[in-house]
Write a structure and sequence with these properties.
The protein is α/β, with parallel strands linked by helices. The protein has eleven helices and 14 strands. It has one domain: Alpha-Beta Barrel (TIM Barrel), CATH 3.20.20.140. The chain has helices spanning 37-51, 54-69, 89-100, 115-131, 148-161, 178-182, 212-217, 243-257, 263-276, 294-297, 326-343, and strands spanning 7-9, 12-17, 73-78, 103-105, 109-110, 138-142, 165-169, 191-194, 207-210, 232-234, 284-287, 305-310, 313-317, 320-321. Helix 2 packs across helix 11 and helix 4 runs parallel beside helix 5. The radius of gyration is 19 Å and the shape is globular. The model has no long low-confidence stretch (mean pLDDT 96). The structure holds zinc ion. Zinc ion binds at residues 16, 18, 79, 168, 193, 237.
């Protein structure tokens, strides 16, 4: 760290997260090693989400929010699924984040994987949360796990409630046909997760959510989001909420396919987050490095927040949150992780 003086920025935004997956770390290995993207979903994430109850969701979100704050991230756009604990789940996520002091925009990822009743319950949870005044979006898991009727119902619900839709789009080869099925439904307030296996000229409206670490981890390929005319924002897809690290990775991934790429492009993707959660612009994060400039940060490891202020309140100081006890959150989350892993 060579910066002489601290520098302040607005609060970082993680534009695509899965707070429900925070307790996945250390989970038992799947019965067989997945060999494809669909296999990873079936063997890992769809077993995990099925095992969740509301208490696990609460502590998973608390730990995820705590780790966000510890990374200077004050806003999370969350995509949630818990097929055996649907009702009330979005409120649990929202309350957990509020308790820690992180802004969240949750949605429930509607899917036909659990039959028409499962899709109905997902739609109803989105409706309940948003119509009770919750700030969030309507979620769709992905086009390849939904029939056209469910896609249309979710899009109509979002339009009715004045919320956007948050959906995974062409993350893996299994959803290659997805963009063509949702193109006519999309609007500028839609969030399109991943867009790896999507044509450059795709015709979809909305913001592309780029998650480079997750894409590498799932071996799905590089989205190369600079090729799109849509706005691009950065997310983690559930692997923490450290947006400074996500920016650094997004920059070198861009560089890997274009030697003329500069850190300013990926920094711009980071800044798009403030269009998605505008309140985060007024949050103030003081960092341990100066200047917070893309050309510096792209080549500087270990950048972390010293203090975070939201709405005039200091929510993070001296490496710790002020509203909750970090050690207690970690201990409770570990208890719930043990319960979850035992179910798997
Ligand atoms: Zn995702």
């Amino acid at each position: 760290m060579t910066g002489a003086a601290a520098a302040a920025t607005s609060g970082m935004v993680c534009a695509h997260h899965h707070l429900y997956s925070v307790l996945a770390r250390g989970m038992p290995a799947p019965p067989e090693t997945p060999t494809s993207f669909l296999g990873i979903l079936e063997q890992i994430w769809w077993r995990l989400d099925t095992a969740l109850d509301l208490e696990m969701i609460r502590w998973s979100a608390m730990l995820g929010a705590l780790e966000a704050l510890e990374s200077g991230t004050t806003g999370i756009i969350d995509h949630h699924e818990s097929p055996n604990a649907v009702e009330g789940s979005l409120s649990v996520v929202a309350e957990a984040c509020a308790e820690v002091g992180v802004r969240v925009r949750p949605c429930y990822g509607v899917t036909d994987r659990h039959g028409p009743d499962g899709a109905r319950r997902g739609l109803d949870e989105n409706r309940r949360f948003l119509s009770e005044g919750g700030k969030g979006m309507v979620g769709i898991h992905a086009a390849f796990t939904c029939g056209d009727g469910t896609l249309e119902e979710a899009a109509a619900l979002a339009e009715e409630l004045g919320a956007g839709v948050h959906i995974h789009a062409a993350e893996g080869p299994d959803d290659r046909d997805g963009p063509g099925r949702i193109e006519h439904l999309t609007a500028d307030d839609w969030l399109l997760g991943h867009c790896v296996h999507m044509d450059t000229e795709h015709g979809l409206r909305g913001t592309v959510l780029h998650n480079p670490r997750s894409n590498l981890n799932n071996s799905v390929g590089y989205a190369d989001p600079a090729r799109f005319t849509n706005p691009v924002a950065l997310g983690t897809d559930g692997i923490g909420a450290n947006m400074i690290e996500s920016f650094r990775l997004a920059y070198v991934m861009h560089r890997s396919v274009d030697v003329t790429a500069t850190p300013e492009t990926a920094w711009g993707w980071l800044e798009t987050g403030w269009d998605l959660i505008p309140e985060c612009r007024s949050d103030r994060v003081t960092w341990n490095y100066s200047p917070m400039d893309p050309w510096h940060i792209a080549f500087t490891a270990g950048v972390r927040p010293l203090e975070i202020e939201m709405d005039g309140e200091v929510v993070f100081r001296d490496g710790a949150p002020t509203r909750v006890d970090a050690a207690e959150v970690r201990a409770k989350a570990a208890e719930q992780a043990a319960r979850l892993h035992a179910r798997l």
